[in-house]
Amino acid sequence: MKSNLKKIFILSIFIIALLFNNLHIVYAEDTNKPELVSRAAILIDNKTNKILYDKNSNEKMFPASTTKILTAILTLENCDLNETVTASYDAIMSIPQGYVTANISVEEQLTVEQLLELSLIHSANDATNVLAEYVGGSIESFVSMMNTKVNELGLTNTHFTNTYGFQDENHYTTASDLSKIMQYCLKNDEFRRIAGSTSCSIPATNKSDVRSYTSTNQLIIPNNPNYYSYVTVGKTGFTTEAGECLVSCAYKNDLELICVVLGGTVVNGVPTRFSESKALYEYGFNNFSLKNIANPGEIITEIEIPNGSPDTKSLDLAFTDTIYALVNNTDLETNYTPEIHLNENISAPITQGDVLGNVTYIIDGVQYTSDIVATHNVEPSQLLQFVLQIGGLLVVLLITFKIFFSSKKEKNN
Length: 413
What we know:
This protein is α+β, with helices and mostly antiparallel strands and about 425 residues long. The protein has helices spanning about 1-20, 70-80, 90-95, 110-120, 125-135, 140-150, 175-185, 190-195, 270-285, 380-410; strands spanning about 40-45, 50-55, 85, 110, 200, 210-215, 230-240, 245-250, 255-265, 265, 270, 290-295, 300-305, 315-320, 325-330, 340, 355-365, 365-375. The chain is elongated, with a radius of gyration of 33 Å. The protein starts with a helix and ends with a helix.
């Protein structure tokens, strides 16, 4: 009987060991995150650069017509909107058949603003080429400008060979890089205005009657089934190889988010570039908020200046900047502890407003920093000054005494 119990016990231990050996610990995941069909995507906060969602965001992808946002910003940085541009034969006729155009004619004259509208709103490739040739002197020179800007922005996984997104193995970017290009573009108010327009109407020119177009970005078209009221800016793109692409921006509750979706498809008649961008924005707005961490003038710490006068040596240090941190909504009540870094050898005199160090918060891997300054003047201690003066006088007397007795000795000798 005892022998059987022993065997059963040993067998039980063996079975339990096997079970634990094959047990996989499952950690809780954010079940609110959307599951995307698109091959790559990223969602970031424009103010803090915090990444809220990432799917293959550093994988090289074809951008299609989302390329045009870089062409647009380079145009805006090098031209006035009212400048008149004449379309050349090469700029027009180099567009392959099947690519979207605005039917611009050779020698047709349009303004820079009109060409930007055609490029960003209607996604007209001929308009983009005309702009590029005008700005760069040639399309090849303009493409060089594009890649120079890419390098200036520190984008290591992006390279362009044309101005509008023509399919080319060497014309590529990533969702992450494209979000940074959009961040750069959003610093320009004219870009925001044009890329956020729902339609454009081009007056009659020397070669054409009036032309009117609706934006290809259905997220900003009221009454469209894909309309999303918080989207302010966007640029679509599509080629067979690139799939459904969209880079856009949305604003709600003081949050400005940038979303990039690349390599999408069509599901139930809806391009995933629209449905999945909406899903990502909803995820971002519903789960994250800006938390006010600090404001200018608020006291962060108190220090004592060793050589300060008794009534001024206790010194409050205050923030110079407003600090907002993007946090998960579950952390809105969390109090974050800063790292305070003071300058070396702080001593009086100190003037109100002098920068005496900085303070840093590291929240979810993102660093937020502000200088800290003196809130009042700190005068040197009069007692210390008196002691120093007496000490100096004693030194002078000692030297004089030494010289005097040295001279007397020499005379006696």
